[in-house]
Design a protein that fits this description.
It is a single chain. This protein is of the alpha/beta class. It folds into 2 domains: about 200 residues, Spore Coat Polysaccharide Biosynthesis Protein SpsA, Chain A, CATH 3.90.550; about 100 residues, no CATH class. About 55% of the residues lie in helices and about 15% in strands. Strands 4, 5, 6, 7, 8 and 9 form a 6-stranded mixed beta sheet that branches. Strands 1-2-3 form a 3-stranded parallel beta sheet. α1 links the parallel β1 and β2.
Length: about 325
């Protein structure tokens, strides 16, 4: 198991304790310190782990590659420094590879509820859990919260892209390369881990836009790929379009139809949006109660809107990247 960490003093103790308490005995733990400035390293050294440190802040991709280079096992299991495994997580992952000899990589999901119980943390966790639990098990991507890959395969594709110097979509990019090379990736829904990261309202939005929507859009544009799964399922795409068209359609209806008829357009649009997302809204209500469910609907709607903004920004940045590349080639 490879655990990169940076200033993880609030979570790393529980993470390593959970890894040591699992029911699968044959493993090693490799921790890579990405230039922490707190007491994380002293906590890590209290556990029976192999330890390495980077000499400057380098990012999770470089830290994971360093840990992978130190590993002696055939399977590399990447665990984030704010993720606690369950007692059976390791045995479930190991069993997936034992039962499917051609499997090259797999990943799991968060449990329904995280360690922090503030609204932003629970909301983020519920969306992630529901999305993974309701996606196809044949995957084209990867997830490093709890993701495993055969070491020989990892080495053949040169590991994580080290141009990602912050936690972003380096795991998705790895999955795209694995898939492009024909390697089999599976989503193991029973391999669940508990998230210990605490989000605030602002940190949640910042993470969704700048660590997911923007770089993921640019990644898809660069590789010219679009897989209709996980966060990009058809109902998600259609829901985003419906919300973006809500205001223009309402204004158009007011101008081109009788006022009495114009009221039906926003009602139909809202009804369509609620119908497309009825399952996740019902899941949130069952998991956390009626009033949280109402707040969940509002936040989920906001997430669609700012994710579209992130998508548009990603496209603009990609176009700018292409223009700069064309200018550079012309100058040469």
């Amino acid at each position: 198991m490879i655990v990169p960490y940076h200033d993880a003093v609030e979570t790393i103790d529980a993470v390593l304790a959970s890894l040591s308490a699992g029911d699968y005995p044959d493993f090693e733990i490799i921790c890579v310190n990405d230039y922490s400035t707190d007491d994380s390293a002293s906590i890590v050294c209290g556990f029976d782990v192999r330890h390495a440190s980077l000499l400057k802040p380098s990012g999770a991709a470089i830290a994971r590659n360093l840990g992978a280079s130190m590993a002696t096992g055939e399977i590399l299991l990447f665990i984030d420094a704010d993720v606690e495994v369950t007692q059976r997580t390791l045995s479930i992952v190991a069993g997936a590879f034992e039962s499917d000899p051609v499997l090259s990589a797999c990943f799991g999901s968060y449990t329904p509820l995280p360690v922090p119980r503030n609204f932003a943390s629970v909301y983020k966790n519920l969306v992630h859990h529901y999305t993974h639990q309701n996606s196809e098990i044949k995957a084209h991507t990867f997830w490093c919260g709890c993701g495993a890959v055969k070491r020989d395969v990892f080495e053949k594709i040169d590991g994580f892209d080290e141009s990602y110097t912050a936690a972003s979509v380096e795991d998705i990019e790895l999955g795209y390369r694995l898939s492009a090379e024909g390697y089999r990736i599976r989503l193991i829904k029973s391999a669940q881990v508990r998230h210990a990261k605490r989000y605030s309202f602002l940190s949640l939005i910042r993470s969704d836009i700048f660590h997911r929507a923007v770089p993921w859009t640019m990644l898809m544009a660069r590789k010219n790929v679009f897989y209709a799964d996980l966060n990009l399922r058809p109902e998600n795409v259609v829901s985003a379009l419906i919300l973006m068209l809500f205001l223009p359609l309402s204004i158009a209806a007011t101008h081109f139809f009788m006022l009495e008829m114009a009221y039906f357009v926003p009602v139909i649009v809202i009804a369509g949006y609620l119908f497309l997302n009825r399952k996740i809204f019902a899941f949130a209500r069952r998991s956390t109660g009626f009033f949280f469910g109402l707040k969940f609907i509002a936040m989920y709607t906001a997430t669609y809107l700012y994710s579209v903004i992130g998508f548009m920004l990603g496209i603009l940045l990609y176009i700018g990247e292409k223009i700069r590349g064309s200018v550079s080639r012309t100058e040469k």
